[in-house]
Every structure is written in C-alpha cells, then in structure tokens.
Amino acid sequence: MKIGNKMFFSFGTATFIIFLVIGILIYQYVKIKVVSIQETNLQALSDVINRNMEGILNVSVKNYLRTFSDKGGKIADYYYNQYQKGILTEAEAIKEARNMLLYPGFMKVGDTGYIAGVKKDGLLFIHPLSEGVNISAQPFWQKVDAIIKTPSQEGYIEYDWKNVNETQARTKAGYITYFKPWDLIIWCSSYKSEFTSLLNKADFRDDLLITKNGKTGFTFVLDVEGNAIIHQEEEGANLIENDYIETICRTKSGRIEFVKKSINDTKERKYIAYYSYIKELDWIIVTGMSQAELLSPLVIMRLIIVIGIVLSSFILIVISSFISRIISSKIARFGHIFDIAEKGDFTQKYISVSVHSFRDEIDDMGTSLNSFLSSYKEVLFNLKKITNKVVELIQALSSSSQETSSTASQQAAAVKEIVSTMEDVDSLSKSIEKKISEITTITTNTQVTVKNGFSKVQDNLSKMEEINLSNKTTIDGIKFLSERIDNIWDIVNIINSIADQTKIIAFNAELEASAAGEAGKNFQIVATEIRRLADSTVTSTNEIKNRITEIQKSSDRLILTSEEGTERIKEGNGLTKEINNLFADILSSSEISTDSTKQIAKSINQQVGTFEQILIAIKQISEGVDNIAIATRETTNASDDLDVVSETLESIVNKYKLEG
Amino acid sequence: MENSEIIDSLKSNQSSPPEDVNVKTGEKFVIVLIGEKKFALPELIVQEIIIENEIHYLPFTPHYIRGLINRQGEPYSVVDLQILFSNQMLEAKKFVILRNSVDKMSFIISDILKIVFINSNDIHFIKDQNDKDAYFHSSITHENDEIPVVDVQKIVIRIQDDLE
Amino acid sequence: MTLSNNGCCDFLNIHYEKIEIYINKSQFYSSIMLNEVKDSGLQNIYFQKIIQFGEQEVVLFDLNAFIHSNFHAVTKGSVKLCFVSDVSAYNRTIKEYLKSDIIACLIPSSSEIKSIALRELKLLPHVLSEALEKKGIIACSLCSHTISYLIDLEKVLSFAINTKVE
Hints:
Helix content of chain C: 10-25%
Radius of gyration of chain B: 17 Å
Number of strands of chain B: 11
Number of domains of chain C: 1
Structural class of chain C: alpha+beta
CATH class of chain B: Mainly Beta
Distance between the termini of chain B: 29 Å
Radius of gyration of chain C: 16 Å
Strand order of the largest sheet of chain B: 3-6-7-5-4
Strand content of chain B: 35-45%
Helix content of chain B: 10-25%
Distance between the termini of chain C: 40 Å
Order of helices and strands of chain C: EEEEEEHEHEEHEEH
Number of domains of chain B: 1
Shape of chain B: globular
Oligomer: heterotrimer
Largest interface: B-C, 36 and 38 residues
Order of helices and strands of chain B: HEEEEEHEEEEEEH
Strand order of the largest sheet of chain C: 3-7-8-6-5-4
C-alpha cells in the first residue's frame, strides 16, 4: 500500500473516530443541561401558577372577611352611638351588638365562620362557642397584637384553629378591626377551605390555559378526585382513569412523565409535567410539555456536530493526501539515486525542492545521503589509488625476487670463499697462542724480580721512619724545655713584683720615718737598707730575666734547627715513600701483566675454539644460501600470482564512476 | 631617719678635720714617674704609696678625677695628673696617698723612683706663672734632671673651680 | 637624730654590676610593678612616661636610666619595679614640674630593703663632697668588693629635672 493511502486511512480514521467521540460527548452534555434548564423552567412555571392561585384565593378571602369585619365594626359603632345618645345604656348597647354579631342569618361567614368580639387582653368577649376563653397565649396572638399596633388597627390574619368540639386544627383566615370605644376587636373568621366558592374560576381560566411552555405546553387544574376543574380539552371530566392522573391525585405534588395522544395529534407523544397542590382549594395545578419540544434545541446542535465531523474529516483527508504526496516524491528521489548507485554511478545527488523553512527530516536525510555518498566516493578513490599502488609494488616485487634469486647464487659462492679464509685465520690463531705462552713465562720472572726490589725498599722506609721518630722526640724535648723556661718567667715575674712591693714598703717606711722626725731616724736607715735590698733584688731578677731570655733564644734557635732537620727527614721519608710506591706500582703492573698475558692466552685459546665453530656455521650458511635461492624462485612465482590478483582488483574498482 | 641626720652623724664620727700642714719648700722630695716624665712632690705631703687598688667610678666630677679607691675603708679620690697636664689617661697601678692636709686625695703614678734630699740651691721657684706651669710652684735639680715640683693646692683649687 | 637597731638604718639597696645604690627608706612609701605606661608629654627623657598608681596617674622617673648614664652602672636583671614617693615636702621646682605630690621611680626588680650600720657609710673627700651632695650623692660605702653610693632622691630629682637631656 502506498504511503499516501496509509496516511489517508490511518489519519482519516483516527480523526473521524476522535471527532465522533468528542461530538457525542458534547451532545450528551448539552442535552443534559438543556433538559435540566427546560424542566427547571417548567417547575418554576408550575410554582408561579400555584402561588398566583393562592394569591388570588387569599385576596378573595381577605376582601370577603374584611367586608364582614367592617360590617361588624359598623354594628358596634351604631350601638355605641345609641349609647352615646343615651338611648341605650352601655350594657344594653353591648348586648344588642352581641346579638347582631352572633345572629347566624346575618353574620354567617363561610360555612362555619362567624364574627367574634375579642378584648384587647385576649378575652373572647363575644363568641358563639367559647366566650370567656382567653386566647392571648395562643401563638397567633402576636400577629393580632402587631395588627392592633398599626395605624389602621385592622388587618388580615391566618392561623391554625380548632374549636372545642373539633379534633384537628385547620387553617383559619380572619380579618380583625379594632373598635376602640369598647376596647373590642371585631374578629371575622372562617376556615380557609370554606372559601373555595369565593374563587370564580372564570376570572383566571383563560389566563391559566395560555400559560404554557412552547407549542406543546399545557396547564390544567384538577381536584383530588381527578375532576378537571380547568382543562383545555376535557374540562369538567373525570380523568382518574388515566394512570398518570391517578398518580397525580395520589401524590398531589411532584414530576411525572406520561405518554398521551392529544386530540389534535395523530400520534402519541411523551410528556413531562410538574404538579403542585393548593391545600385551601384542594386543587392540583399541573403544567408540562412534550419531551420532543423540550429537546428541540438539541436537534440543531446534533446537525452542527455531524456537519463538523464530516467537514473536518474531509479537510484532514485533503491535507494528509497532499503531505503524503510530497513525502512520496521525496522517497521516490531516494529510490532513483540508490538505483543508479547500484549500477556504479555515484555522481547523483539528492536535491531538495522545498523552501528552506519547509525543509523536513527527509531533506535532512537527503543531505546526509549526499555526504555519505561523497565519503564513499572518496573511499573508492583511495581504494583505486591503493590498488594501483599495489599493482606497481607487486610488479616491483616480481622483478626484485628474480634479482634475489640470482644474488643468492652469487652469495653461495662468496660464502665458500669465506670458509677457506676462516680456515687460514684458525691456523694463525694457533700460532698466536704459542707466542702468548712464551710472553707469560717472561712476565712471571719479571714479577719475582720486582718483588725482591720492593721488599728492599720497604726496609729502607722503616729505617727512615725510625729516624723521623727519634728526631720528633728530640724536638718534643726541646719544646718541653721551652715551656719550662716560660714557667721560670712566671716565677721571675712574681719575684719582681715582690721586689716591687718590697720597694714600696721601703718607701712607705722611709716616709713614715721622715714624718716621725728624730724618733724615726733609725727606722729610716732600716727602710733605706730594705729599699736597697729591694733594688738589688730587682737588679738580680733583671739579670735572671736576661739570662733566661738568652736561654729561650737558644732553645728557640735549636727548635728551629731541629724542625729544619725534621723537614729534611720528612723529605727523605717522602722520597723513600715515593720509591716504595713506584716499586709497588711496578710490582702490581708486573702482576697485572702476568695476569693479562695469561688472560690473553686463555682468550686466544677460546678464540681458536670459536673460529672452528664459526667455520662450521659458515658451512651451514652456505647450505642455507642454496636454500634461499630455491625459496626466492618460489617467491617470484607467488609475485606473479599477486600480479594477476591486483589486475582483477583494479578492474573491479574501475567499474565505479566517481566523477561526473 | 632623714638623710640630713645621717650626714650629721657621719660628720661627727669623722676623724679630726684635715690639719694644715705647713708645707715648706723643704728639703726632701719624692720623685715619681708619671708616664715618661718625672715629677717631684714634697715629702711632707706624701703619706703613703699603695698599689693594685681598683678605681671606682665617681660621677659628676671632672675628667681628670678617675674615681675613688679604697684605702683602709676610706674613700680617696684619684687625680690623674697626666690627664691634667697632657690630657692623656695614665695606665698605672700605683697611687700616692696625700696627707690629711688635703682631705683624702691621691695621685695615680707609674712608679716611685726615689726619695731625695735636695739642697736649697737646687730648688728653683717659678716666678712667672703661665698655663704650662699652673700646677708647679718650683722645680728641683737632681742628677742633671730638672724636675718640676707639683703644687697640690693649685690642683685642689682647680678641682674646686671645676666643681662649681 | 634617731637611730634604729643599734646604729643601723634601713635603705633601699639597688644592685648593679659593680656598684650599689642606697636610698633612704624614708624617702618612699610604696612600691608597684610597672604597669600601663603612657606618654607624659614631658620633654626630659627621664620623665617621659606616666603609670597608674591606684586611681591616679603619676609621672614615672626613670631612675635606672639616670643611674646607668651617670654612674656608668650596668643593670642586673629586669627593670620593672617602681617605688612611689611623696614629693609634697620637696622644693617647688620639683612639684611644679611634676604637677603632682607623688612620683614613681623605676628601678631594677632585684632591689631590696637592707639594714645597714651607719659606720659602714663614709663621707666623700671634702673637696668633692659639697658639690656631689648638691647632685644627690651624699655618702659611700666600701665594705664589699664594690662601692655603694647613698643618694638623696630630692637632690637627684632636682638635678635630673634641670639636666638638659632631650
């Protein structure tokens, strides 16, 4: 199946289903809403009609009662005037008024109603049944009180009432008027249900019948027996036989659906109706309309949804068809390029016809294909080049292998020459070995001679050491002597200082003697002698100093000479040591020489052995070279085969057209 | 106890005030060596020679007063005549203690040479005083040397002038 | 004159390397350690600091520096002890300069109170004593290997104040 058809069927079907589902859902939702609104309107209409009816009834009752109340008020007023005029006493006037108010023929209100006179404190002053009863505690008294407080002091009142001979309370309607002179409320009342006769249905029948919803709407009034009080078609008839009527009369208020064929209809229709009960009249107000008319707004909506689904499906089909055609053409171009490439022509390219802003993934794929093709072309180019190269190399290999073959033969001959040369070298090595062993003998003798000389030098060295040691001892002795001379200096200095102090003491003595005058004369002589002794001590110590200085100088000179001698001995010692070192070097050198020649002899021996092994190896090489020549011939054959293969490869690569 | 009381107590315990010794131009002189030079002092003014005393520095005194030495527990000022005469400090360890006529003063000297008797003929008084001779009132001739005689009073006057 | 303890008197003995300084104990009444030192604003190098003595700020006389520079004394140990003296009885110059009746004097921490017999003290040679007394040196002692000088604080302060050392 073509992609266009696939797209058509897949997108079309999917879109159709989606729109259909959406349409159904919208329709159902709207339907529910419409029905709800319609029925709400219907119910509201029913309630309005109900309230209107009640209102009409209330007004009628109120007016009726008011008339009686006014009448009662006038009666009271007449007799009060009589009293005022003095014609009657007050009690007579009141009595007359009572009689008039309670006269049934005159003041009959409804069936069981009456006019009463109630005091302001709640006492039933005038009452056909319950005079003397106080009703101020009754729940409705507050309403009465409120009316009395109004400026008009009159008003309408409804309340539940039960006479003493009654078992159940019923709604009573009353009109009260306050007669102030006697503090008397003229109360005209009766049960509300007794006033149905007040209502003249002719007053509202027509209005009621035209109150309806839509063309099939209707409104009618039943009583609880099922009699049609007001009905467009069957007024006065008893409709209780109909199930729906029976249900209505039973339940009195609610909602009902029923099927019926109207007089003007040819077929039955389904209807929906709301009904409510007017308790005072014992009537049921029914209003409704056909279900078809209720749902009429949905017809257009249904039509719109269907048209929408169809239209959108059609548009989708057109668009998908267009897009699929574009995609198909692009894919066809791909097909064309691949077909040509299969034949080896890689020069074709994918070219996009779309405007830049309308380029899609297929165009991108085309761009990728173009770059892939160019890379592939490049690979093939390189492959072609390599193939050419391989062909050249194989050709070169073929020619070189032929050369190698001839070279191998030449090499075999050359190796044989090497073998003979190696044999000559071997005999030469053997003669070297003989010479080396002679040298070894000579060096060994030399070593012995050197050792003897070395030991003589060692003896000489030790003698020199002894001389050095004795010289050092001599010098140490001289230094010791020098130190002792320094000690003598210290003693001399001490003696000098004592002499000096002695001299001072002598001077002090002389001074004291002078100060003593004659008495100190002998002491002065003693002091003078002490001073002379001190002077001679100083002189002697100076002599000692001089002598010691000479001794010190001599010992210094001796030390100097000894140190020079030590230097000479050291030099001699040094020379001896050098000779010793030289002999040691010579000895070690001769030892080394002996070792070395032994090593050389050993090496030569090893070399001879090695040469023999080399000779064997070269003979083996010669055999190998012959094998190589054979192998190279085989290589030449292989390269010829390769040449054929490379030609085949070249022909394959050349099949591809890479440039336009 | 206040310092003034201490001073009074010390003064009262002090030995008799220095007596004026009539220093004659006299016959005996002590010849001392100060540095390389010889000087003479009248014997009567010389009390004692002492050696090897440590000089303790004394502040607020002229530079030629080297400090104090301890002689038998008493402080003696030390005057360096070489600083006074030729502005050179004397490195020496001998001190000439002067008699009580000059309260507790000593001169530092290199050495004491001799005590000699000098004839009057060999004592020459200096008449014209210039700066060089400010501290000598005479000189003596001994063994062909002309030795100046130190005038101690003038030394004392110089010290007093410098302390004011 | 009153003597205490058989001719002895109590002195503050300040130790230096080869010199001792005595100050009559009656010349000070308290001692503190060197504390929060601030600048006094005075030019004289011996009076450049002030320290806290109780709630008061008192001028610090660097007596240690004075002795070091004039007596050529080498300080032993740290210098963180201060004795406090009442200068209210001293001459006017001192009180005007210090602007206070109290002064603190900085001395080496190793100082001690010592009872010394007066017989150990000697007056200086006559020719020097009067001049040195004006500068504060009133006596000396040669009983130990070193020399000890007895100084008068009032005269030392007067001399230090009048010394043009900046």
